[in-house]
Amino acid sequence: MATDRASESAPPFRLVFILAILFHLLDIFFGRLSTNPLIPPVIFFALYVLLAMLTWLKMRGTQGGKQFTTKDSLQLLGAYIGISIAAYFIPVLANSLGKAWVTTISPVVVGSIVLFAPLWVLYWGFVGGEPAIGKGLSTLFSIYIIVWFIWVLLSVLPVVQHLSGPFNAESSAVVSPKEALLGAWTTLKTNYDKITNATIEGTKKQLNVATGDAFTGKVDNQAKEKLGIVMGDIKLTQQKFSTQDTVGVYAAITGEALDAPLKLKVSCTSETAKKTPAVTPDPSKEIDLGAQESIDVDCSYPPDSFATGTASITLGATFSTESLAYLKTYLMEKERLRDLRDNKIDPFQQYGITDRNPVTIYTSGPVNIGMGFGTPPLGINLEEDEFVSTLGITLSNAWAGKIDAIERVVVVVPRGFTITELTGEGTIKPLSCLELSPLKDWCDDEVSTAYIITPVLTSAIAANNAYTVRARLRAHQPDYPLLLGNTPLSTRYFKAAASYTYTLEKSTNINILAADAGGSTSECGTAMLAEAPKFTLLSTETTINVKTTAKTAAEIKYCIGADVASCASQTVSSPNAAIEHSFHLDGLTPNARYAYQINRLCGGQRTQLDGTDISGKGTFTTPATS
Q: Which class for 253: exposed (0-12), middle (13-18), buried (19 or more C-beta within 10 A)?
């Protein structure tokens, strides 16, 4: 009877069908079926009653002129209210079936049954069919039922043997269809990701052979940056020195564009000095220097360290780091290459290669790595048993310091090549990529072969000099397919990473006067603050005026904080011996508290400049930006 009426009504029940789906979805994600309900249950009770009434009104109004008695009307109303009540309470019953049911079949199964079986949707899909909801929704409903049936069947079968176990009616467990849906999606996505990732990884390995990888990308990025440390110009603590003065020099060292802090040691040397200098920081201890961080290196030689004349003092910073490089080259079958050239065809133009003469790309730093591997494209004769060539590797000292030692040079060649011998001082041995920490992520045993060269240096490598080693590469016929691949012209990469110890140095020449020639500066040792420092404060700059009781060179150290001893300070110097000094500090932060310390520079030594009852250190606060 319901089917006949539905046939006469045609698609007016499409709205009821869609509303039933909508109400159920709201219940899943925001209502009683969610783990965090946002809509009160009474709202859903009202919605399901509304759905029953709407269905009843539509059914009454679509009888095609047939007599529709009060009894028929009440029977239909009772049936529809019954369906709504069942639709409202089924999820509640499912959530109170007991923990045994849930744990036996699994929350995913129970949740799936509730999720995919809303009563009103099933009623109009089965009873109403196409005449009631239209052809499009009817087809969609059929697909929906098939998917739902397969889902529940596959979920239940593995645990059907546990269904004979008794239910625990006193326990309860909440079943969330939303969680079931999300869990199903997560499982599907996880499996999809596994398959996809496996495919991507396989493809990536092949692409890395021809197009570079994380290693080449890192080199490309760092080739554009200045890496390492920079040493500023050496400054003198006073303008003139005599043999009786303490001779003092200092310089700032700054880290630039570092991936991680460098560990360095400072030094101060002079070939003509008779005594050992006092150096700060302690030369025997390593210092961490990060990007954009700066430290001052102070060096002072005690009196009688130098004879009259010119003395040279060198400040140095020694650290360990590495340089990276790669070289791209092209390989072809020799016969194919000859045919192209015999027909006056440019192989690069023929295969769309624009980078005709690839050069070594290396990271910017104290050591530049150069590599050479013949003139590409190189031809491999498939008829010959062996292909032999040479890879040249040169480490050039590009800075003003010296290469003290080269710990190792890692060379990664395309799989198919082997290095059999070296020309030059050093030893070589093959290694697995997994052993090349921290370079293991930049090397893959399936597409490349790694070697470690241990150089033998008899002396440090000075500026503008280099260490060169040439490696003999061989490949045999079974290896040719690995090198040539499946393309007429293959692209391959050679990689190198050199780890070394480097000393960056700067020198200055100082004219040492005889003590009786006026070189003594004993007067400055009596200088004190004549009055408290005077500040002219602006938001981003400050001027500090200082007056002393005697002529002396001076400086001021400052930084954001409460004390210069506990923060990274900057220095402004007034190197000329004078009574009045003016220090201009710029680049300050508005509304910030700064610590400062005024030092006397005398005889190569720094001492805090105080007055009788005046401190040479304190704090000031910059005004806020107006």
A: buried
pTM: 0.52
Nearest to 586 by CA among 575, 577, 594, 578: 594
Q: 248, 299 in Cβ contact below 8 A?
A: yes
Q: Are strands 287-289 and 241-242 parallel, antiparallel or unpaired?
A: unpaired
Contact 216, 208 (CB under 8 A): no
pLDDT, tens digit, for every residue of 338-358? 999 999 999 998 888 888 888
Higher pLDDT, 19 or 278: 278
Q: Which two tokens stand for residue 614?
A: 């005046």
Please report, for the chain, the start and end positions of each structural domain, with discontinuous segments joined by +.
Answer: 2-189, 213-513, 514-621
Closest CA to 455 of 418, 404, 419, 494: 404
Strands 426-431 and 367-372: unpaired
Q: How far is CA 257 from CA 84, 262, 320, in A?
A: 68, 11, 15
Do residues 596 and 564 touch, judged by C-beta distance below 8 A?
yes
**Token reading at 521:** 């500066």
Amino acid at 92: V
Which own/partner contact pairs does 58-63 have at CB distance under 8 Å and 24+ positions apart?
58/9, 58/12, 58/13, 58/16, 59/5, 59/9, 62/5, 62/8, 62/9, 62/12, 63/5, 63/8
Strand partners, 294: 254
Of 1.10.760.10, 1.10.287.990, 2.60.40.10, 2.40.40.20, the CATH number of 514-621 is 2.60.40.10
| Residue 558 contacts residue 530 (beta carbons within 8 Å) | no
SS3 430: strand
AA identity, residue 483:
L
- In this prediction, residues 253-272 reach a mean pLDDT of 85
Confirm if 409 and 453 have CB atoms less than 8 A apart. Answer: yes
Q: Which is nearest to 595 in space by CA: 562, 546, 555? A: 562
Determine how β-strand 466-476 pairs with β-strand 418-423.
Answer: antiparallel
First to last CA, the chain: 84
Q: Which amino acid is at 607?
A: T
| 513: pLDDT strictly greater than 60 | yes
| Pairing, β 241-242 against β 489-513 | parallel
What are the tokens at 476? 């045999």
Reading the block at residue 338, the tokens are: 């000859």
CB atoms within 10 A of CB 503: 19
Is the peptide bond preceding residue 303 cis, with omega within 30 degrees of 0? no
The whole-angstrom separation of Cα 588 and Cα 620 is: 12
Q: Would you say 567 and 574 are in contact if contact means Cβ atoms under 8 Å apart?
A: no
600 has which bridge partners?
A: 554, 607
